[in-house]
Structure formats: structure tokens, C-alpha cells
Amino acid sequence: MFCLGTNIISWCSRKQSSIALSSVEAKYIAANEAVCQLVWLRRIIFDLQQNILDPTTILCDNISVIAMTKNPVFHARSKHIELRHHFIRDMVNKKEIQLEFINTYDQPADILTKVVPAEKFQQFKEFFKIAN
Q: Does the pTM exceed 0.70?
């Protein structure tokens, strides 16, 4: 989900096109897909004559994924991941994006991918300012 201010402007939920060998790899690939979408959105905003000076924040609920984007020492764990999925590292290095940790229980994207209890559903509705 991508927000501009407090408004959701883009979202996507789909099955991954490649097979992951671990949950960390699956989340790394998903984060990479989000970065690709983010680059596209940043270019649209730039085309609308709006400069983006600060890196855009992506919330990630996996500390290992965040570490993999910043530190190539994880090579032994990530060498089997296809090269195209490492685009995220380039964007972090260029400081166009930054990954921030969010607790799994507070991850708003879960509303698109998981069954959530009624109270969590209500919490996310309030977070996204969705009326009843």
C-alpha cells in the first residue's frame, strides 16, 4: 500500500511470480516488488513538477530483510536469489528509499493478505481513515 499524506493512492496484493525458499526470501522479493512500484510512483510525482528530496519510507516487518538490503555480507543467505530481486539494494544505496521496521501486529498491509480479527480490521480502518 502506498500513501500520499494520509490517503492511499496505490495498492497491490497478488501471488508472487517466483518461488521463495524461505519466509525471509519471500518478504525480500515482496519488498523488491514494492520498491519497483515506488520508483514508478516517484517518477509520476516528479512528472507533476513535485520534487522529492527525502528518501521514501517502506515499512517492513522483517529485520533480516532490512539487514539484507544494507549489508552484502548476507551473500551466503541470498546468493540463490535472482539478481533482479536485488534492485532494492541499489535504491537503498542511492538513498531513494529507506526501510523501517514495523511490528508484525501493526503491519497495515496485512489487511490485504491475511484474515484479520474484527478489532484489527477496525484498527486498520481508523488508520486509513476509511468511513463505515
A: yes
